[in-house]
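Re: iron/sulfur cluster structure - here you go.
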Amino acid sequence: MGLKIDHETCVLCLLCIEECPYDALSDAGDGISVGTACTLCGACVDVCPVDAISIPAEGLQRAGAGGSHRGVWVYGEHHRGRLHPVVFELIGKGAKLAEALDCPLEVFAAGHELERMPGQLAGLPVSAVYLAEHPGLAEHADDAHSAVLARLIADRRPEIVLAGATSQGRSLIPRVAVLCRTGLTADCTGLEIDAETGNLLQTRPAFGGNVMATIVTASRRPQIATVRPKVMTPLKRKGETTPQVHRWCPPAELTASRVEVLGRQQAAEGSVNIAEADVLVAGGSGVGGPQGFELLRKLASALGGEVAASRAAVDAGWIPYERQVGQTGKTVHPDLYVAVGISGAVQHRAGMQSSGTIVAVNSDPAAPIFEIADYGIVGDYREVLPPLIERLGQLKAEEEREGE
Ligand SMILES: Cc1cc2nc3c(=O)[nH]c(=O)nc-3n(C[C@H](O)[C@H](O)[C@H](O)COP(=O)(O)OP(=O)(O)OC[C@H]3O[C@@H](n4cnc5c(N)ncnc54)[C@H](O)[C@@H]3O)c2cc1C
Ligand code: SF4
Ligand code: SF4
């Protein structure tokens, strides 16, 4: 069931016709009529001064139950056609959501010359990929890309849209949500389907990580959620099947942008993305100063990993911000996370608690970090780390000798 107009209450002010982004309403002479272009975005409901328009709850139910939106879509964030790793993590979660809803999982993206993209999805349970391609979309610009993606969403009507909470996702996806007149839940750490209503249950930390809030977009479609990189787990590929490709060349009025790219600058040498590291050795204020990080660097190097830090260490100027883990830093999901001289405040834990194995080194046996650690070592890190580094060095030397 779709949009409902109470003709008795309607005063024919025509505001709804003006407001509808999809030209779905018209004045047929005998009252406002609703065309097939209606996406149930709800914009007209909000603007009607006499509450004459409503969307019956069942209108938002899934296609199988008589609703108009179907499918789980993952935003194919890419750099010149190469998909960002978060896309594969979202496909992992999206596949589970699509299974629970018995609907297809699809990827959508905008850009120019994206022919390499479908091949990157081989062996994954993605049934189709929707590509908006235009030379005007070659450089990423939020205004043009959001207009194009919102039109794609309005035309194909997915029920759920997932995107990475990356720098690009954080600035692009809220614009898409506004254009689609729907809700967005940012930085989700959990996504499930409510078995009763079919709604997406979007869980994210709130109030500085002290509570987990579950948010529902009950009266708008699609339901849009962003997820930080490394929170979800990618799927293993099976076979070589590639998705069906749907190409669309958007009209010039959508691809026009106010942004002009004047140049590009490479990240400074030595800069690192800790969100992509498999092993992290993180230091906190307990390491006592920048010199304390030298020992951590040795351990990280022996383990083949990178050095990270708590906010206290970053705020003290001991290590650059790009290495901060936590609520106001990066969310990381390495196989191994070694927390050295870090107390384990909720804001720090919010960024690392989904790590594979957590090892904590702390002189205080009551430090909260031990609550989430798989292995805890109580002691002064200056005494604990040197024998560890030495032993790792011996093991490496043994391995090399065996390999000769
Ligand atoms: C809005 C907001 C956002 C925040 N965002 C973040 C964030 O993104 N990331 C983040 O990390 N924090 C964040 N914080 C700060 C957070 O609340 C904590 O203050 C911070 O994480 C503490 O850092 P720490 O564990 O290094 O220091 P401390 O809490 O001071 O802990 C130091 C630890 O080192 C141990 N120690 C001391 N000496 C030694 C030794 N020789 N050997 C071994 N252990 C030793 C101590 O027992 C102690 O447990 C945020 C706070 C707020 C309010
Ligand atoms: S719900 Fe949205 S698309 Fe449908 S008629 Fe109203 S404004 Fe137009
Ligand atoms: S906004 Fe409401 S009152 Fe005005 S024409 Fe549309 S339905 Fe009628």
